[in-house]
Amino acid sequence: MYSRRTRERGQTAILYTLGLTTVFGMVGLVSDMGYVYYRKQNAQAAAQAAALAALKTAFNSSGGTFVCDTNNVKCTTYTCPSSITGYGSDDLQVGCLYASTNGYSGSKVWLEANTGSISGVNASYWVAAHASDTLPLLFSAVNGNHSSTLTARSIVAYIPATLGGCIYVLDSNAADAGTLTVSGGASLTSGCGVFVNGPNSNAANMNGGGTITVTGSQKTQIVGGYSCAGGSIGCISPAPITGASSAGDPLAGLTAPTDPGTCTSPMWNGHNGTISNPGGGVVDICGDLSLNNNDNFTFPAGTYIFKSCNPGGNQGFSVQGTATVTGNNVTFYFEGTCAPQITGGGSINLTAPNSGTYDGILMFQDPNDTAGATIAGGAGQILNGVVYFPTQSVTYAGGSSSSTSGNSQSLSIVAWQMKITGNSYIQNSGSSPYLGAFSGFAVVE
Fold it and tell me: Do residues 167 and 218 touch, judged by C-beta distance below 8 A?
């Protein structure tokens, strides 16, 4: 018995030692990871400081008119040198100096800069700064991990003020011609900007004799080009800006309303109709709401979801003939196969909310909706707000040439593609914080 106990002595010490090795390894790993995370935060701060300093230098030198290789505006990829004389000779060298004050210098820092959009954001100039480092690992070395390489990146851009736009056509597929079409001798007269994201040489097509006239200080801006009937060049006035930067999707990220899940049917008294929404909340309208000659329908303030529409029917919200539709502080949301189908010469007067979640949003279609929209109510159609169809085409005609308050409209249309089929007048852009009137420096990434 004595000899057996003798042989068992020291086992606890061995197990304890082995356990400590594991514990120390875990402690070492946590310590090293914490150190790497701390250094990554420093690198991120250095990259952001460098990008912001470079962009501000370019802005101050150019007065906000960013032209490559002019007034300290560099458009290149630049690795920081080991030393810089004075305060730097251009915007990227200034960025290098700011990175250096945050502990990163020389080849550990490199910058990229150019004009135009970046990461889907409409910008006139941007700077991307990178800071990298190789860190020795102390405790993890026992596991064979002697070092770790980290890289941080920050992109800062200058966002120009759009001053509002009446039309935004989103289709950016190079193969798609006629993303904006004005056909059959129709005309669009706009008191605010027209933006066409299509890069095709015929992105704006007026071969059918259509015209666009933009008044005030705004212009038509086209990423690609345009064509006029008979090969002329005067169908857009003033002359458009071609080769422009993409305006992107100004409403990207707009979220759908919460569906209450209960259908509410319209109430009719002869040709007069309305729908119950005393609290101004969200109401489901299931199936097709079709308004015809002599129908008079009033929408109380609130958000209306059109759903469960008949694909072969009126597609949700149909207004034909001499129907009259009114609604103040309303938002219409379309999903599934639902879309507005407005035709004829009725009286339509709809205004978006001026506060709340959907401030300024009059119509909004789910990006997964498969139905195109027709909003062609003629001169009696007055829409105030923003109409958003991010993946579908909108056929549009409407608005009055009169500038009186009762006949003018403040409207912005954001659509994948757009067809103008009748004389249309939009005096002012729709007012909504979602359209992003912001201009200035912005951290993109």
Answer: no
Between CA 142 and CA 205 the distance in angstroms is 68
Say if CB 88 and CB 103 are below 8 A apart: no
Q: Can you give 338-375 as a three-state secondary structure string?
A: CEEEECCCCEEEEECCCCCCCCCEEEEECCCCCCCEEE
Q: How confident is the model at residue 64 (pLDDT cuts 50, 70, 90)?
A: confident
CB distance 416 to 203 below 8 Å: no
Indicate if the pLDDT at residue 21 is higher than 60. no
Phi-psi region of 207 (alpha: psi -120 to 50; beta: other; left: phi over 0): alpha
pLDDT tens for 253-276 read 789 999 999 999 999 999 999 999
Please report where in the chains the tokens 């759903």 appear, as a residue.
307
Phi and psi at residue 335, to the nearest 5°: -140, 170
Of the listed ranges 21-35, 46-60, 209-223, 410-424, the least confidently predicted one is: 21-35
- Report whether the peptide linkage leading into residue 238 is cis, meaning its omega lies within 30 degrees of zero: yes
What whole-number percentage of the chain has pLDDT above 90? 58
Residue boundaries of the structural domains of the chain:
9-159, 165-436
Is the Cβ–Cβ distance between 244 and 221 less than 8 Å?
yes
pLDDT the model gives residue 187: 95
